[in-house]
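#structure-requests
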Amino acid sequence: MIKGSNVALTDLSDDVGSVIVSLGWASPTGEGDADVSVLLLDANGKVRSDSDFYFYNHPVAADGSVQLLGKTPTADGSEDRISFDLTAVPSEIDRLVVAASRYEGARFGELEDVRITLADAAGENLCRFAVDDAGSVTAVIFGELYRRGEEWKFRAVGQGYETGLAGLATDFGVDIEDDAAAEAEGALNDAESDEQPDAPGPAPTEEPARQVTREDIPAPRRPEGEVVEPKKPAARPRTAKKKVTLPKTVKKTLAENDSWRPARLFPVSALKNDRDREMRATSVLLSVMAQVPEFSRRLTAGFGAPAGRMETFTEVSLPHGDSPRRPDGVIRVERAGKLWTALVETKTNGNALKADQVQAYMDIAARRGYEAVITLTNDVALEGSPLVDVKIDRRRKHKVALWHLSWAEVVHQAQMLIRHEGVGNAAHAWLLQELLHYLQHENSGCHGFQNMGPAWVPVRNGIDDETLCQGDARALEVVENWERLIRQVCLRLGGELGQKVLPVQRAKRGAAPTERRNRLADQLCLDGRLQAELRIEGTPGVLAVSADLRTGRLRTSIETPAPDQGYPLSWAKRLVRRLAEAPADLHVETLVDSETGGPRGTLERLRPEPADLLPKDNGTKITGFRLSLLKSMGSGRGNAESGFIRSVDDAVHRFYTTVVIHLDAPATRRAPSRERATTG
C-alpha cells in the first residue's frame, strides 16, 4: 500500500472477524527499538477515557478487543504484534489507531524497513505498508482500522510526531496530568494499598503498573496566566487486589523424611510409553487452559482466538473418509454467540509430526469450519519455516490456519505467570504450579528441543578432518538446530528471570531467513564455529555465545560500554569490585579504539591490580570491557549430561548468574518527565 490509501478488509479475506497487526523495523546496530500503542477513538476522533489508550503498561482490553502480544525477533530486527477482535470492539468506537514511539531522543529515521503488515485470523498476510519518510520524528501513526457502515477498512497513514508519545496522546484526548497531580494520585493509591489486609504481594514486573498520567509522558504546557481549577485525581487500575504468585521461599514440609513425595494432581509414575505421554500431556494442558483464562489467553491470542468462555476436549472422533480420525484435542472458545475452534495435535519426546496426519486434520478442519490446527511438540519453530511441509488446497488455505507451539513455550508462559506476574486467585496459581511440575518432570516427555539431529556427528567429524565443504546440506541442518536451541535457551532463561530474553538475528536489510542460514552454514564450514547473541532486558550489553567445534569449547561473553564520566582507573576498580563474587577464571579484556587491542587477564590476576586493565599509552581511548567465560562443551547430540544441548544451556545460565547479574544495569530508557519534555 501507499501512504493515504485504504482497503476494505472483506475484499482481502473472508476471515476478518479478528486480525493481527504487526509493526516491524530493522536496526543497523541491532539495538534500535520502539514501543507500540493503540488508541480507540469515537466519532469525534477522541478517546472516551484514558483507558482507551493501550501501551506497554496497559496492554490488554477487558473486553478482549485489543491485546498487545509483545515483541518477536525477526531476521534483521524485531516485530511487535497486536491482536484485534473486531467483533468485540464497542459500537461507539469508530477508529483504531496503531502507532509506535521511540524514547530518550531516538528518532525513527535511525531505523530501517519501518513497516506495518496486517494478517487475517488464519495468519495470511493481507497488506503491507512501508513508512519511508519517518525522518526525525519520535512517534509515528502507522495505520488505522475504521468503520464504514457494517464493515471495517484499513488506511495506511504514516503520520509522524516530533513531540513523541505525549504529543500523539494529547492530540487524541488522552489526559496528561502535571507532576504534582500524578504524585498525589500515586500517594492516594499507596495509602489504599496499605489499608488492605496482608496478602501475597504482586509479582515483580518490568515497571510498576500505572496509567497514562505518569512520569514517562511530559505534562503539556499551559498558557501564561491561565487559572487551573483543582482537579480530582484520575481513576487508575486498583492496586489493592493482589495477584497470587509462588512464595519466594519453600514452606517447611510436614513429611517425616526426605523420601516422602507430595501428592500430585497430575502424576507421572504411570506413564509407560509415548502414547500414554501424549494423551496425558494433552489432557493436562487443555484442562488447565480451560480453568485458567490468563494462561489460555497467552497461548491462543496470537492464533486469533478471542477472549471468551473456553472448553477443551481430548480424543475426539471426527469422520474422515472410510475411517474416523482422532485428533489429540479440540479447543472451542465462545464469545458473543460466535465460536472459534481449533484441532490440536501433540507429540512428546523426540517424536516428529507426520505431514499426512497434519494434512488430514487440515482437511477435516476446513470441512467442519474450524479456524485453526495447532501442533504442539518439543521442536521449536524457525522464523519463516514451518515444521511440517503441508500442501494445502489454495482455494481454502485462508479458511484454516496452521500454528505451532513448543512445550518449552508452554513452560515459559506458566513460569512468567506464577513466578513473576501473578494470576487472579490461589487456585489458578496452584493449577499452574502442578502443570509446571508435570511438564518439567523427566518422565513427561515435554522437555523441549533435545536433539541436534543426525547431521551433528558427521558435521563435527567433517570440521575435525577439514572435509566439510560449503554448500553441504548437513551444515545447514546443524545451523537450523542451533537456532532452535538458542530460541529455547531464551525461553528458559526468560521464564526464570521474569524478563524478556530474545535472540539477536543480524542480517542484511531485506535478507530472507533462509539466506541468513545459508550464509551461517557456509561460515560454519570455514571456521567451525556456531555463534549467537541474546538480548536480556536490564543488562548493559548483548550476551554472546560461541561454540567452537574444532576445539570443543564454549565461550559466553558480554561487552559493557565505558562510563561517560570519571577516570579509567576508577572504571577498572569499580568493575573489579562489582565482580567480587564472579568466577576467578573470568577473562576480562579492555576494549580500545586502536587496532592493537587492549590489556586482558583473568579476574584472579586482576583483583589485586585493577590498574593492569589500563593501556600503557595514556592517549588510548577505552571504549568498554569484554567479559568472557570458557568451558568444555558436550559432544553428544542430545540432552544427556554429556550432551551439547545441556552444556549450552548450563553455560548461559552460569554466565548470567555469576557474571552478568553483578554488572551495572543500563541507564533507564525512559527519562524523567522534565528531561523528556526538552527532548520531545
